[in-house]
Amino acid sequence: xxxxxxxxxxMWGSRKTTDRMVFSVLHQFISNRNPFKIHLVLVDDYIxxxxxxxYQYYVxxxxxxxxxxxxxxxxxLQNTEHKYQGESREIGFMAGKYNYFLLVDCDDxxxxxxxxxxxxxxxxxxxxxxxxxxxxxxxxxxxxxTDGYEQKIVGESIWVQSRCYNRKFIVKHGIHFPTGLNSKxxxxxxxxxxxxxxxxxxxxxxSKIGRAxxxxxx
Length: 218
Fold this sequence. Notes:
- This protein is of the alpha/beta class.
- It is built from five helices and ten strands; from the N terminus they run βαββαββαββββααβ.
């Protein structure tokens, strides 16, 4: 089975902000000894924008010169009405090519080895525990905000960006983000409560803490 990870971002605002997030995904470290692929799913919820084609640049032939299109695929989904942050994320991870996924805000950046570190943890666990599955990997958030300082969100964080998720687990337990205006703010709380409740009541899945710093040498 092809190894890969889906990265999802709900898009809102100018490309001056979103460019930094996109390039942080395109510049992910991918080892030749442990290769994998990335599916970047951008969900355009920028309804107010006069130019609804602003993010089309990311899926243009011109933009492909900036990344290895054999290793990274970019998909742009455009909402026809406001879905807001939470619901847009769900649209994105359900459309992803790969089962495990990360959620990244459009004004944040992933550390260069984020995807590699998460997948190494997942692969090691599945090799050593063939009869069990991971619902998520959590610990420090492998990322930076756009001001450049490291974001260390511990495993107890309610923020959805602090974990790498197993989509099969989410689908199995019917875990969803709120819809409508309830998806605009505070959307992390109900999603994480449902996720953690399901994790505590499903003995076939467990979580794994990844404590490596995003500054760790690779």
